[in-house]
C-alpha cells in the first residue's frame, strides 16, 4: 500500500482531516485494506464485535437491524468516505447491527489500538465521535417518539428505506430522437412501455416521449405523425441517482409534474422509475394528491383536495419520517396548490400586463410548513416603462392578488394578521421598489426595518418569472456585504429569545395564562434556531432559505456552523418533530393546533433530549453575544 496515497485519502475524510501530516502518516501505518464482493456480510448483528474502524474507499454498504416485530429494518446506506464499525469497535461484546456490501466494496481498516490512541491524544477526533454518539442518541429518541404514538411495520416505512435503484426497471428501451412520431409510438406498443428514452446523434439521452406526450401533443392537436419525435419529446430529462431514497423521487415528481425519472448510477443510465412503481409501494402516496391538484380546474375543486393534505402528515409520521422530510413533502404539495390557484387567477383576469413572480416567506418561504399556517406572500413585477403601464399593472395585480388571497382562505390558508400578503398594495410592487425596500432596511435598521428584514429575507419564488426573485436576491447579497451594524441588529434579535432552560437544566415553563406550565416549542424552541441560522446565512450571503439547507450551505464557510451545525440540525429536527406530533394529535381530536407542550407528557428520553437541545441553543447564543459584544444591548 502506498502511504502517500492513503494519507491523501484520509486527509479528506472527517475526522482524519483534523490531523497534521505526521499524525496522518502514523495512522496510515496501522491501516490495512480489504475487498468485499457484493453481498458479503461484513458485520453480523449479535455476532462478535468489530476489531476495526472501517472507511469505505470504493463501493457501498447497507446497515440494518433485525427486530422481533418488524423483521429486518434498513438503518442506513453508506458509500465512499463514510465510516462504519465504530460502535461495534467500542460498544461491548457484540455487533449491534449487520453491515452488508451492496456492491463490490473496498474498505480501509484501522485497528482498535490505533483508534484508541487517536481518541486519547487528539481532542478534535474525540469530539467528532462524541458528536456522532449524540446524533445516534437523538436517533433513538426519534424512534421512541415514533413507537410511542404510531404502530407501524417495515413496509410502512419503505419510502424512507428503499433506494430508487432497488425498484426501478432495469431494461430501458431507447431510440434515436430522429425517428418519426409514428415509429416511436410503434416501439412503445411493441414493447408495452409508457415511455421511450430518446438519444441524440452521440447516443446520449436527450429527452423522453411518454403516453401523455402522444395524447396531449400529437392526437389532441392533430399533429403529423411523420414529424421527428424530438419535436414532441419532453426535455431535459429529470434524473435521480440510484442510491437516492424513493422519498427523493416523490419530491422530484411532484416538483416537476412528471411521471418518469431516469435513474443514473456512476454517471450512466441504469433504469427508469415511474410514478406507478411508487404507487405500488404505497397507495396513498403524496403523488396521488399532487395528481388530484393538477386535475382541478376551479377553486371549488381545489378546496376538496386541500382537505387531504393534513392526512399526509399522519401518513408520514406513521412511516417514521423526520420532521425535515415531512416539511419538504408538504411544501411541494402546498406549492402545487398555490400555483394552481395562480393559474386559475391568470385565466380569470387574463394575461398579466407585466412579468411577475409570486414569492412566499416566513415558514412557507423556508419550506418549513406542516399544518396550514398564515399566508405570507408578495408579488414582484417587472419595472413599468411608463406611468400608464404602472397604473395598469397596479390595477391588474390588485384584483388578481385579492382573488388569490380569498381562494387560499377557502383552501385552508388563514389570512396573515399582520397583512404580509400580496393583496396589501405595500407588498405588491415592481422590482425597483423591492430593491429600495431592502436597501433602506439594511442601511437604516429601525425596529420595523429589522422585523421586515427577518420576515422578507426568507423569501423564495413559487410561481411566475423566477428571474425577478433571483435579481432581488442578487441585490440583497450585495447589500449585505460588510454591513456590521445591520447584522448587529439581527444578532440582537437572535439572542434575545432564549430557550426555555434554567441554570440547572430545568425547564422554564409559561408562568400564567391559558398555557401555564407548558413549553412554547415554536417561539422558545424552533425560532431561536431559525434566527441563529438566518444570522449566519446573512453574514455569508447564503442564498438558501430553509434552515437545514442553510446549515448545509454554511459548512466550511462559518466557524460556528462547522462546530455546531450538525447538532443544531439535529436539535431543529427533534423540536420540530415534537411539535408536529403534538399538532397532529390535536387535529385528530378536532382541536385547533398550537405550539404548547406539557413537559410532563414527554418521556424521560424526550425530556433529556429536549434539555440538551435547549442547552445547545443557549450555548450558541452565548457565542454570538461574544462575537457581537460591542453591538449587543
Structure characterization notes:
It is globular, with a radius of gyration of 27 Å. It has 24 helices and 20 strands. It is an alpha+beta fold and 633 residues long. It folds into four domains: 3-121, Jelly Rolls (Sandwich), CATH 2.60.120.10; 164-281, Roll (CBS-domain); 284-441 and 452-461, Beta Polymerase, domain 2 (2-Layer Sandwich); 481-633. Helix 1 crosses helix 2 and helix 21 packs parallel to helix 24 (604-627). The relative contact order is 0.07. 50% of the residues lie in helices and 15% in strands. The strands form six sheets. The protein has a four-stranded antiparallel sheet with strand order 1-8-3-6.
SSE inventory with pairings:
Blueprint: H1 3-10, H2 21-28, E1 31-36, E2 41-43, E3 52-58, E4 60-67, E5 71-79, E6 83-84, H3 86-90, E7 98-101, E8 105-111, H4 112-121, H5 123-149, H6 164-167, E9 174-176, H7 181-191, E10 195-199, E11 205-210, H8 211-219, E12 239-241, H9 246-256, E13 260-265, E14 268-274, H10 275-281, H11 286-295, H12 299-306, H13 309-318, H14 323-349, E15 356-360, H15 362-365, E16 377-381, H16 387-410, E17 428-430, H17 431-443, H18 447-456, E18 460-464, H19 466-480, H20 484-496, E19 519-520, H21 521-539, H22 547-554, H23 559-588, E20 596-597, H24 604-627
Parallel strand pairs: 9-10, 12-13, 16-17
Antiparallel strand pairs: 1-8, 2-7, 3-6, 3-8, 4-5, 4-7, 10-11, 13-14, 15-16, 15-18, 19-20
Amino acid at each position: 500500500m502506498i502511504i502517500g496515497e492513503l494519507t491523501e485519502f484520509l486527509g479528506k475524510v472527517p475526522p482524519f482531516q483534523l490531523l497534521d501530516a505526521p499524525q496522518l502518516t502514523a495512522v496510515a501505518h496501522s491501516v490495512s485494506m480489504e475487498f468485499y464482493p457484493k453481498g458479503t456480510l461484513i458485520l453480523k448483528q449479535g455476532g462478535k464485535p468489530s476489531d476495526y474502524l472501517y472507511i469505505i474507499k470504493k463501493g457501498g454498504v447497507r446497515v440494518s437491524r433485525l427486530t422481533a416485530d418488524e423483521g429486518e429494518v434498513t438503518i442506513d446506506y453508506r458509500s465512499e468516505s463514510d465510516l462504519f464499525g465504530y460502535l461495534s469497535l467500542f460498544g461491548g461484546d457484540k455487533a449491534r447491527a449487520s453491515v452488508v456490501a451492496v456492491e463490490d466494496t473496498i474498505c480501509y481498516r484501522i485497528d482498535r489500538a490505533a483508534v484508541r490512541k487517536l481518541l486519547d491524544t487528539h481532542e478534535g477526533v474525540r469530539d467528532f465521535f462524541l458528536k456522532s454518539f449524540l446524533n445516534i442518541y437523538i436517533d433513538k429518541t426519534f424512534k421512541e417518539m415514533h413507537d410511542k404514538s404510531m404502530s407501524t411495520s417495515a413496509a410502512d416505512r419503505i419510502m424512507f428505506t428503499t433506494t430508487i435503484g432497488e425498484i426501478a426497471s432495469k431494461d430501458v428501451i431507447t431510440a434515436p430522437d430522429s425517428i418519426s412520431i409514428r415509429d416511436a409510438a410503434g416501439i412503445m406498443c411493441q414493447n408495452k412501455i409508457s415511455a421511450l428514452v430518446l438519444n441524440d446523434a452521440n447516443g446520449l439521452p436527450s429527452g423522453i416521449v411518454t403516453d401523455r406526450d402522444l395524447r396531449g401533443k400529437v392526437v389532441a392537436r392533430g399533429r403529423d405523425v411523420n414529424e421527428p419525435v424530438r419535436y414532441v419529446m419532453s426535455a431535459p430529462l429529470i434524473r435521480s441517482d440510484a442510491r437516492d431514497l424513493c422519498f427523493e423521487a416523490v419530491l422530484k415528481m411532484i416538483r416537476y409534474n412528471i411521471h418518469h425519472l431516469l435513474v443514473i448510477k456512476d454517471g450512466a443510465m441504469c433504469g427508469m422509475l415511474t410514478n406507478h412503481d411508487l404507487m405500488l409501494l404505497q397507495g396513498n402516496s403524496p403523488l396521488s394528491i399532487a395528481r388530484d391538484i393538477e386535475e382541478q380546474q376551479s377553486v371549488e375543486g381545489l378546496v376538496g383536495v386541500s382537505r387531504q393534505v393534513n392526512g399526509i402528515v399522519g401518513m408520514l409520521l406513521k412511516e417514521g419520517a423526520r420532521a425535515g422530510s415531512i416539511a419538504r413533502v408538504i411544501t411541494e404539495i402546498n406549492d402545487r396548490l398555490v400555483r394552481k390557484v395562480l393559474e386559475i387567477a391568470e385565466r380569470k383576469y387574463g394575461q398579466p400586463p407585466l412579468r411577475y413572480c409570486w414569492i412566499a416567506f416566513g415558514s412557507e418561504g423556508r419550506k418549513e410548513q406542516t399544518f396550514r399556517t398564515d399566508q405570507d406572500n408578495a408579488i414582484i413585477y417587472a419595472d413599468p416603462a411608463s406611468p400608464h403601464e404602472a397604473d395598469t399593472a397596479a390595477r391588474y395585480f390588485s384584483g388578481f392578488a385579492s382573488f388569490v388571497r380569498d381562494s387560499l382562505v377557502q383552501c385552508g390558508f388563514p389570512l396573515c394578521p399582520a397583512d404580509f400578503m400580496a393583496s396589501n398594495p405595500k407588498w405588491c410592487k415592481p422590482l425597483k421598489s423591492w430593491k429600495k425596500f431592502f436597501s433602506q432596511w439594511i442601511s437604516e435598521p429601525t425596529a420595523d426595518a429589522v422585523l421586515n428584514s427577518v420576515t422578507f429575507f426568507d423569501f423564495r419564488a413559487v410561481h411566475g418569472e423566477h428571474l425577478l426573485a433571483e435579481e432581488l436576491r442578487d441585490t440583497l447579497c450585495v447589500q449585505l456585504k460588510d454591513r456590521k451594524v445591520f447584522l448587529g441588529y439581527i444578532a440582537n434579535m437572535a439572542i434575545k429569545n432564549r430557550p426555555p432552560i434554567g441554570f440547572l437544566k430545568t425547564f422554564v415553563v409559561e408562568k400564567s395564562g391559558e398555557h401555564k406550565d407548558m413549553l412554547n416549542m415554536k417561539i422558545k424552541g424552533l425560532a431561536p434556531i431559525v434566527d441563529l441560522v438566518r444570522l449566519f446565512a446573512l453574514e455569508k450571503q447564503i442564498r438558501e432559505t430553509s434552515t437545514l439547507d442553510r446549515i448545509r450551505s454554511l459548512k466550511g464557510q462559518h466557524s460556528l456552523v462547522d462546530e455546531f451545525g450538525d447538532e443544531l440540525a439535529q436539535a431543529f429536527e427533534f423540536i420540530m418533530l415534537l411539535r408536529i406530533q403534538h399538532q397532529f394529535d390535536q387535529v385528530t381530536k378536532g382541536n385547533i393546533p398550537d405550539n404548547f407542550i406539557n413537559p410532563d407528557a414527554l418521556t424521560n428520553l424526550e425530556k433529556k433530549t429536549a434539555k440538551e437541545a435547549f442547552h445547545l441553543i443557549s450555548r450558541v447564543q452565548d457565542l454570538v453575544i461574544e462575537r457581537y459584544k460591542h453591538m449587543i444591548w
